[in-house]
Design goal:
2 copies of one chain form a homodimer.
Chain A: H1 5-17, H2 29-35, H3 40-52, E1 56-59, E2 63-66, H4 78-83, E3 88-99, H5 103-108, E4 116-126, E5 129-139, H6 145-149, H7 151-155, H8 158-163, E6 165-174, H9 177-180, E7 190-199, E8 205-213, E9 220-223
Antiparallel strand pairs in A: 1-2, 3-4, 4-5, 5-8, 6-7, 7-8
Helix pairs in contact in A: 1-3, 2-3
The structure holds a DNA duplex.
DNA sequence: TAGTGGTCTAGACCACGCC
DNA sequence: GCGTGGTCTAGACCACTAG
């Protein structure tokens, strides 16, 4: 297999620190390098990534240590997937192809006046508890006819996030009445709507999502 | 001066792409390496960081390009400083040293029953427009007697964030009546309270902040 | 003084895109 | 076949910490 060596070292390090207490020192870069028959630069790269993720941290001139699990890096939406995956189910409430309706969607998706777009509303549940309502918007021209017949692939947002750039805006509001029931909330309760725009690296927007989170069921949290 | 070469290269790259349109290709790593008399690995490191920040992006086997400014990486709180700095002013509303009061503070700051803590409430304004109210909590034992006489240094959170780890939780709520006036909001308006915990790399919590943002004056946004 | 992480070099080979 | 970014090597020197 062609897996890069630094990734193998990374896994090996992850294994070796598993169950270790926070602030336990790991071997020095030179020791690991000799032990795993790799150059020091390659070992450094593996450690570098684990430091980025908050799994290890370095103290200059002293050593490298196991990080506190509480402080592992997290980001929302991605966190949503990570926390659940298997436990998450989607129920489609509504789905249509529209033109010339919501103004803000045209701006976000950088569409022209008459462009069509797909709008899907779905209820997201984790362990059968409804946690949010998502309104997903995608420009029709970005979906192949094939994909239109199998929307599951189109609506799997993980894939886009991986290779794209995610921008999120957090808006406080009163839960929309039409969603209060779905989320099993009382009317007049405050919620956060997260507006997520996923773009390609060249800046072209791809998908826009408005997520209405039930704050009692889903903690919105980041660590970085 | 002892500034690392890769940082100098980074600055040089930033200069050379200034004003360039998105998706413009930059020189290849080998060209830059020859041009600046540096090894390719050093050039790569400089580019790597700019890619992390969203300022450049790479296309495998093709080249490296200028990124879209809209997609430069942003994170809240840090964003707050970045966007303003000079324009931001703080007015202290309240300040005291307390014991045995708010339960959640003890848990967050990992204090014992009788430990004292400092509580400061301040109004944050940008360009003289009030944008948020911050409640800042710090364990008394983490503040030297000297610092107690000059709270400005203690309350400059930038410094802690730089070397620490930031965890933020987003809570929707109705604006607390005592803050509605300060923020020039009507009562019953929904807001987001951001709970920020800044910890050392070894996991020891240092400062906890509850920020009440006026959503009409301050957009809470992340890009990553 | 010995050991650590931080920086840097001058090569090398690879897979892949484009012509 | 040429150029690109991605990976990797086997050294090197530095500043700093700790015994």
């Amino acid at each position: 297999m062609g897996k890069p060596k630094y990734l193998i070292i990374k896994e090996s390090l992850l294994e070796s620190i598993e169950g270790q207490e926070a602030n336990t020192p790991i071997q020095s870069e030179r020791e690991i390098s000799a032990h795993l028959n790799a150059s020091r630069m390659t070992v450094r790269r593996a450690i570098e990534e684990l430091v980025e993720e908050g799994i290890l941290y370095r103290d200059k001139n002293k050593g490298t240590y196991v990080g506190d699990k509480k402080l592992h890096k997290k980001t929302p939406l991605l966190l949503l997937e990570e926390a659940s995956k298997e436990d998450t189910t989607y129920n489609i409430i509504y789905f249509d192809v529209k033109t010339r309706d919501e103004e803000d969607i045209y701006e976000k998706l950088n569409m022209r006046f008459d462009d069509q777009y797909l709008r899907v509303v779905r209820l997201v549940s984790e362990k059968e508890i409804p946690t949010s309502v998502e309104e997903v918007y995608i420009a029709r021209k970005n979906i192949s006819d094939e994909d239109m017949r199998n929307l599951d692939t189109v609506l799997n947002l993980d894939h886009y996030i991986e290779q794209g750039i995610l921008n999120q805006v957090f808006n406080p509001m009163i839960v929309p009445t039409q969603y209060a029931n779905l989320l099993k909330m009382k009317i007049n309760e405050p919620i956060i709507r997260v507006d997520s725009l996923i773009s390609q690296k060249d800046g072209r927007p791809f998908v826009f999502v408005k997520s209405y989170y039930n704050p009692n069921k889903k903690k919105i949290e980041i660590t970085l």
